[in-house]
Design a protein that fits this description.
The protein is mainly α. Helix content is 51%, strand content 1%. A two-stranded antiparallel sheet has the order 1-2. The longest helix has 27 residues, at 405-431. The chain is elongated, with a radius of gyration of 32 Å.
Length: 657
Amino acid sequence: PRPPPPPPPPASPAASRPAPKPAACRVGSRGWSCAARCEAVLSDPEAAGPGSASAAAEPVQARPPGGSEDTEAAVARLIVEALLGAAASCRLDDVSYALHMEVLAALTVCLSAQLFSELSASVPLPTVTAALGAPPPLAEALVARLLKLYIDQPPRPANPEGRLLGSIGSMLWLPLQVIASFFRAQEPPVELADRSLQVLLLLTQHLPPALFPDPMLSNHFLAALRCVGDADSACGSGAEAEEGRARQGAGFSVRRLHDALCARLPEEATLVLLYLLLHGNRELLDHALSRSDPDALLLPLLRTLAGMLSPACRLRTSRVYMLLIILLMLSQDGGFVSTAHAVMLPTVPWFKERLLHDISVGSLLVVVLVRTTQYNLSRLQDLYVQTNCLAALANMAPCFKRIHPYAARSLVTLYDVLARRFQKLEARRAHASPVELADSEELSDEALGSAADFLRMALEVLNVALAAQAGLQQNEHLVYAILERQRVFAPLRGHELFWDLIENVFRVIDHFGAGLSGQGPASTKESPLQLDKDSDRRTPPLPTTARSSSGSDGVWSVDLVLAHIGEASRSWKADSLEHVPDPRFTYEQESAPEEFFTPYIWSLVRDRSGLVWDPLRVVLLAEELDDEPADALPALLQGVDVVEDVDEHATAPGPPA
């Protein structure tokens, strides 16, 4: 018989520690719980070596115990690593729904350390550094998972066991809820899709320069969001395509992502996600531009932008920026703009200023952009808003087709408003003393230059539209509006900055007004043509025996003038105009976008996450610029045709806030 085995050696104090229990939701195959790993690091930082790393992330190399900073960084890496892995790999069902909510809430709290320091401050933020420094495989898996949760919109699971008790409690609680509703607004509960989107936006924000001074470093989450695409269209073959499909997740679809964005576009967080995808994800941008229903994307944007101009709305300038940037990016594609002009709307019920019937989506876009420009001139005086509105209009001008009468009159009115402002500013500078010119910003060279640039952009929009390939036969209402308001172009006809563009407008006036100036007893020296005041409304054709060709009552009807424009357009040659290059504008992101996006995203998370931070300690969020009083708007905004009540003493648009 063999001798008995020797007795085991006595256990050391370190080895006698009870083995950690596996986590309920494992990060990897070895699955140490987060609490157990943190306890091991606190007692012995060497315990968090490669042997305890999870399979879902790269091994965490613990630093030697050199101080509390190293220990805190190691603990932060373990906590954030476990949370990221759980959010990326845990299965979602009725049981784990609450777990996912708490994991994402914990991630939000870990990232919220940025709230208590400025972006430029070099304060160590271990949890933020650990989250943004996640390896690319983990970042790609988490981005795909968060997008899938946002698309699927998983509902809250029901509680069948407590359904009876819940019903009884709801009946007893109902009177108190009714009373409380009169004193405070009820906010909708935070769903898993909402929290997933908030974490996704926080992770994809650009690297804070104070934490990541190396310019070669990049945000892996933002890079993963830009590479997201259809699982069935993964480029490459073999292992590369299989790896791409695995990253993008089963059932992921760009079409479903586009539909989910359109369904939730009034939300500001969805607006930021749409911007990030249009700016960085080429596949979703191509899909959005190639769809035959641009109204699905444009109408929510236009409704939100138009609603922010109402007196009852609390203006948020950062939201206006996002809306205008998205519209500018969409206007860069001529095919998308042409498709927008081909989609007709029988009515626009949410547009309260005027009844609009049979208007195209492209014409509605023109109307909203013009009204935003006028609002900015009167209230905001923001250079960034003004530039983006006029740039989007300039991009759309070559594709104007069958523009609505109200949109055509809006463009002429916009020129009239800008021309009056420029003339007023120029006259004030001419009569000002040298001391006034030196002390007043309103009369500075920069203010006059900005007013001249904006006026020239408005003239370029008209010139490009008149010389477009669609021809004036399909834009007869634009010619009609120019003929009706031709007197507004006369004061600056000989100005050295605008004479070439205004001369083209007068060539159109001379050609199409030639058959009208000598007819009709209503001709006057001020305007050789008198038109119906409601000429921007579509009216049924008049019987041929109702009036003579010149109008028996001395007033040209809408249909007679449009018929004349149609006849004159047959002999019109677009090459008779001086060539004006198409003013194409493209959106370029600033060199330091985190200065805008990081505080903006955190303001959204603070307001809608259901989590509470001490406002006295938050230093990242400065006072917002949207605390303007909701007083009555000027008369200019009550109707786009009103130009007499414009505040001509308003200053030129100032620098962006």
